[in-house]
Amino acid sequence: MPTYSSAPPQARLTVREQQVEYGLLDKLTQLKYTPRLDIRDRAALERNFRQKFEELNRVHLTDTEFQRLLEKITTPDVFTAARALREMDSFERDDGTPLNYTLVNIKDWCKNSFEVVSQLRINTDNSHQRYDVILLINGVPVVQIELKTLTVSSRRAMQQIVEYKSDPGNGYGKTLLCFIQLFIVSNQTHTWYFANNNARHFSFNADERFLPVYQWASEDNKKITHLGQFADKFLAKCTLGEMISRYMVRVASEQKLLMMRPYQIYAVKAIVDCIHNNCGNGYIWHTTGSGKTLTSFKASTLLKDNPDVEKCLFVVDRKDLDRQTREEFNRFQEGCVEENTNTETLVRRLLSDDYADKVIVTTIQKLGLALDGGSKRNYKARLEPLRGKRMVFIFDECHRSQFGENHQAIKEFFPKAQLFGFTGTPIFDENAASKQFEGEQGRFRTTADLFERQLHAYTITHAIEDKNVLQFRIDYYKPEGKHSPQPGEGLKKEKVIETILAKHDASTAERKFNAVLATQSINEAIEYFDKFKAIQAQRRSDDPDFTPLNIACVFSPPAEGDKDVQQIQEDLPQEKADNQQDPEGKKAALTRIVDDYNALYGTNHRISEFDLYYQDVQKRIKDQQYPNADLPHAQKIDITIVVDMLLTGFDSKYFNTLYVDKRLKYHGLIQAFSRTNRVLNDTKPNGNIHDFRQQQAAVDQAIATFSGEQTDRARQIWLVDPAPKVIEQLQTAAAQLQTFMQSHGLACAPEEVPNLKGDKARSEFINCFKAVQKLKTQLDQYTDLSDEQKTAIAQIVPPDQLQGFKGAYLETASELKRQQDKQGDSAPPEVQQLDFEFVLFASAVIDYDYIMGLIARMTQQSPGKVTMRREELIRLIQSDAKFIDEREDIAEYIRSLPTDQPLSEKEIRAGYEQFKDEKKGRELADMAAKHGLALDTLQAFVDQVLRRRIFDGERLSDLMTPLGLGWRARTQKELALVEELGPLLHRLAQGQKISGLDAYEQ
């Protein structure tokens, strides 16, 4: 068995990276991978692939056939390559006969050959990339492992891979590397893995939302991050083959790859093994927000190929969840489930022999009707042929839908059925609410009563620790006065509304996010809607600058025989009961609410088509993304008033605040709270709960019940630190920044930051100040701060100084980011590892429209009423990341404006556009004159680059043709031009990447 301790050092690797690489290669050799030290370039990689392909398919290819095969299978489209890796295909041989082939043994991935390559060099066009470790399955590169010497954040690690893939001419789209399925990044101590994807799903957007980056874990959710242990558990040959073949999901509708998380894989295995061994029922406790739909999809699709299983039914308990789940399933695999428009369709599909009907998504209500012996259509008798068949039922959120007669009916009619439940909040003895009588003994039904045993658990405690969901910050509103209401009792609605209006902007990061107000009954929801309308109208009358919150309200109407509404109300007990009283009054109120909604948003909804209205409300909550040019804030919802709706089964990353004027406990409380804690980015540090019912005891009880194993630490894990502790952390971070500046002989002041010398010092400043900003962002969303605490925060980070440091941060970060982009792996390690997190420095309030309005108001100020001076406005712009590419232009424009001429916002906008055009024209004219180029030709070249977002080297050469230079002189001239033109192009592109430009700038 060879070892690598004496392998020749590589110029690109540090000594530590060499040691990590050699250790990994030794480990992989122990795992029976064949080391291929001879494969160091593209030609050797292709020769090896050809040999493995010919052996697998028992064929000998001519050289021309092999070249045609390479041309056929090599593609820049990751999704197409992923499909080709997993399916049989054919191509025409030289003699005209077809050759059916596979790239790997897709029937038994364990029987492929597994090899490891290190320091592979791929040269294509301008790209000269070297890859640390590549794993080959049957000669096909499927896993790339990049080794790092420093502690690199998971996001920065992924970003570096993205940069490799965006390098012009890179090997990922032009060689066999197009088949890479997984990337692994490790510094030996910390190891992450993530799926490859096309650029659309493999890039960073302005909000810094990232593709999933995972760490492996054991079945009991203990992290396995050391590279050696990770290799043992994840990279063993058959395990890796299984990961790629069974546990990667191709999302057809989005043309992207998903890699399942460890707990999802364990749950799927548990269900499949239970069915394979025919050992009864079971349930999966996976917390809300953990991706249960993907887990259940994978379980059901794996069962699709099990000949012993007749049908697999995925059962939900509401029509809207039926639609949502069906859409999700079809998103993972196009057309894999059809809509069951009615019970007749469900029965037809149950009796069908069509393979497409083997997996069915349905509601519990339709299934119950199908098994109802009293049906006029005789459904139950028609289903008799299935009675003796093996059926699998997977119930979503089984704590809601299965505590009734339907569960027993299924068990009685399908005696060979196996039942599996998914729940984020199981029913235990202490939170059970439905009686089951056995003789004279009464007891409550629990999840275990119905599904026998727990197959796998991934609780909210695990999810918070893994950062898959956020912690909660709970503000218990304590009314003043001697006669405070008892826990569970409500307050005056006017007081609640006043409190919400005072807290909402802070809680939602200045309306970047949105909120739900949960009320006790439909009557209370109506009353809240009316009072919000009246109070905000009065506020607007008293203060013209007050911007009202956009308020929506949604509750189900009286069913009155409407099957859709009846189905929705199965899981809305309060609304169903409320609608029994004064149904006409409820209808009239909801009609009025929908009319107001139509007037506000320009829609045309009616309560007779309630489901369309409900869908529109959900969409507006999900479309809260700010800024969003396609959907201005006037078209979004700030607060949605609800009774039962949206408190279960609804997901939106932009829903961060729950106002609670409703009695909640146990699973209902956890479900409602969990609507707020979907991960977005660092501007959303936690989910915010504002409780107006003094329910701290109920919260503590729910945490204890659903915490899983770590009940002693649950509160600490679930809840954010209290304000005093975060203020203390802010004090420490600010002191560290001060110590750092002083260690470089500088005062802790924004104007001293440019005096920091060297990459190491500037990188350290980035990390020091980012820590301050993160804590300040967190505290900005604390709505229960006392006056003393606000004063303490202002003393630790004075507002003017904080704004100045933000500007200095953005200036420094921009320079280091350009260096990162240009130098790549050759950049100093301290620069390579920086994760700038610009989103922390972008205000939700301050956007382009806001700035144009401020500039207009600045020009309209009378000498005696100056509220904002020019330099203050410039500092505000320079401290916001949204203007990072325009900050100098806007500042220059503001300084150029006349001091005695009031201008409207329209004039300001037109003037700024003219200013930019004139400045660009001057810069291009100077550049053209300096380099001896025709201005119109240079202008046309720049316009094309900006239109296509591609810097075309051939057109650059054409630009130089009239100069009649030799190739050496022309190359020097091109580089000299790009050195000046590059910064202008970056500025004009406003943060959008220009493909191909980096190659010239390097």
Automatic annotation (TrEMBL):
Enzyme Commission numbers on file: 3.1.21.3
Family: Belongs to the HsdR family.
Gene3D superfamilies: 3.90.1570.50, P-loop containing nucleotide triphosphate hydrolases (3.40.50.300)
Keyword tags: ATP-binding, DNA-binding, Endonuclease, Hydrolase, Nuclease, Nucleotide-binding, Restriction system
SMART domains: DEXDc
Cross-referenced InterPro entries: Helicase_ATP-bd, HsdR_RecA-like_helicase_dom_2, P-loop_NTPase, Restrct_endonuc_type1_HsdR_N, Restrct_endonuc_typeI_HsdR, SWI2_SNF2, Type-I_R_enzyme_R_subunit, TypeI_RM_Rsu_C
Protein name per UniProt: Type I restriction enzyme endonuclease subunit
Lineage: superkingdom: Bacteria
GO function term, MF aspect, one: ATP binding
Catalytic activity from the UniProt record: Endonucleolytic cleavage of DNA to give random double-stranded fragments with terminal 5'-phosphates, ATP is simultaneously hydrolyzed
Function as written in the Swiss-Prot or TrEMBL entry: Subunit R is required for both nuclease and ATPase activities, but not for modification.
Quaternary structure annotation from Swiss-Prot or TrEMBL: The type I restriction/modification system is composed of three polypeptides R, M and S.
Residue span, Helicase ATP-binding domain: 273-444
One BP term from GO: DNA restriction-modification system
Lineage: Bacteria, Pseudomonadati, Pseudomonadota, Betaproteobacteria, Burkholderiales
PANTHER family, per database record: TYPE I RESTRICTION ENZYME ENDONUCLEASE SUBUNIT (PTHR30195:SF16), TYPE I SITE-SPECIFIC DEOXYRIBONUCLEASE PROTEIN SUBUNIT M AND R (PTHR30195)
